[in-house]
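Quick illustration, no need to memorize.
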Amino acid sequence: NKICILTVAPYPEFGELAEGVARQYPQIDMYLAPGIYQSAIEYTQIYPSKKFDVIISRSFTADLLRSSSITPVIGVEVSAYDVLRTLQLANSLRQPFAVLSTPPVIETYRRLAELLGLSLHLYTFYHVSQVEGLLREIKEKGFDYVIAGIVAENLAPPIGLKTIRITSSRESIQSAIQQALAFHQCVENVRQTDGLYQTFLDH
C-alpha cells in the first residue's frame, strides 16, 4: 500500500531534501506545505480532500500540529551533526555568538559543547512569544550573531542581529521518513490482524 505523507517545511531546502529522500521509496506519495507554527496549520488545509497517513515537521511546529491534527505527526530531530555544522560556521566568523532554540535542541548543543570542551552562550525559549525578548537580551549582552531557527531569523534583523540558521540534514529528514514508514507498517499490520480476527469470528 502507498503511504501518503505531508511534509510541513519550515524553509524551502527542507522540502527539497524531503522530496529527494522520498524519491528513494516508491511506496511514498509526498506532499509539501510550507510554514511554521500557526501558518503551518493553515497550509495543511491546502489539501482539504486528501487524507494523509503521516505528517512530518520539526520543533514546535510538530508539537502544534500534534495538538491540532488527528493525523500522526513525526518530528524531525536536530542531530549532533546538524548542531556541529552550525558551530563550525559560527566559529569561522570569529565573532561572539549565542544560541537560541527549544529545550531539546539546546540540550544537544549543551552535550556537544561539554564533549568538545566549548563554552557556549545558550538561551532557551518555551514558547514562540518569548523569542523576540530573548533576541533583545542577546543583543544587549553584546552579541551580533545568534544560531537559531526560522522564527528568530525573521525577528532578528530589526534588533540588529545576524542569524545562523539551524537546518536539518538529509540524514535527519531521512530518519523521520523511515520512522513514518515503520509507523505506517505497524498500523497496516494491526489492520490485517484485526481483519483476520474478524474473518475468523464471521465463520
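The radius of gyration is 20 Å.
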